[in-house]
User: Fold these one by one.
Assistant:
Number 1:
Amino acid sequence: MTASPPSDQVRAGQAIYLPWTLPLYDRVAFQVNCRLFFRVPVPEVVALFDRNVSAQHLDVGVGTGYFLDHCRTAPQQAITLADLNEHSLRHAARRLARFDVTTVQANALEPLPLPEASFGSASMNFLLHCVPGSIRQKAVVLDNVAACVRPGGRIFGATVLTQGVPVGAAARVAFPLLNRRGVMQNAEDSLEDLRTELAARFPEHTLTVHGCTALFEAEVP
Ligand SMILES: C[S@@+](CC[C@H](N)C(=O)[O-])C[C@H]1O[C@@H](n2cnc3c(N)ncnc32)[C@H](O)[C@@H]1O
């Protein structure tokens, strides 16, 4: 099956990741955005990876590969990186070159061109707030990623919400601008919808909130 070409809105969610912006990403994302706007402690996200990453891991929406570089990786670690953006893939693969890395260019809103039920774990960190639609619509990403994970395996990630969570003053200024540009696409994203979509798929799941960021982790049934 050939994937349909991504829409302009989907492209907008990954357009900012370029060879000259990626070297700045860690500083902007983790020292500015996480502290000032998302108000999530970065060590909480590292701990999320530590709890869930397995020896055969799939990361979807890779950015710079920061969390896989900093988390407690398994011995003989195999990592598959999937992203729509070729620059993110190249940057993260270079950073994680000490592992057994495979890259796949793919839109997470479409079924991923990977074997079904073949990974022990999969992350989609800070991805959902970059893709268009409400949480109900973008929850198809959960299905596409979970399809690649073995039953009993782990699926996890974080996403920034705007409804049903405390959004600070700085974020209330920044988020509309970022949403207008399509860098973030979370104007309708609510905690209630995320809880509903997780519960509909994963009987065993945990959802925690830090600032306006939701961290989720689940067992694939
Ligand atoms: C905010 S970065 C998150 C990077 C990393 N996971 C982290 O936690 O720092 C979002 C990543 O998702 C990718 N992305 C955006 N939309 C996507 C889509 N529809 N399908 C696959 N990847 C996408 C971007 O290219 C970028 O690498």
Note: The chain has a mean pLDDT of 96.
Number 2:
Amino acid sequence: MNWKSHALIGAILAFVLFYLLGSRDMLELIIIIFFGAISALVPDLDHDTSKGKKILDLVFISIVFFVLYFSQCGKSFCIPSLGAIGQLIIFFFAFLGVYFLFFRFFKPKHRGITHTLVSCFVFSVLIYLIAGWIMALASLTGYLSHLLADQHIKVI
Ligand SMILES: [Zn+2]
């Protein structure tokens, strides 16, 4: 299944879940759809050449720059003093570093560790820590939808 189908399924399932849960806020639903779609691409990060990986690399880098741009420094590029935002930036860089190192050197085999329920859970917890339970639930839905669509569900 290609990345477009995965993203679409993740987006639809996340939308349906939150609609059924009673969410009617347009902005919230759009963000949820986005998280569902992005999360549905995460399991295929183990494809070195996957389009999903390229998109996610771009998303992560964009997030880092987005956070930097809207940091206390305002519109110029500088290192903010350590406040809540400063810590968030450091967290994002740490996350980015781990992300690149993991896929650069660990190179999991395709449909290996990223296609497991454990990874799904770890990913959702990570999103929960960064963005709260709503985004975590949207991410969980997207990630699970990928495993279901691949018909490849392992616990570990
Ligand atoms: Zn897959």
Note: The CA atoms of residues 83 and 101 lie 27 Å apart.
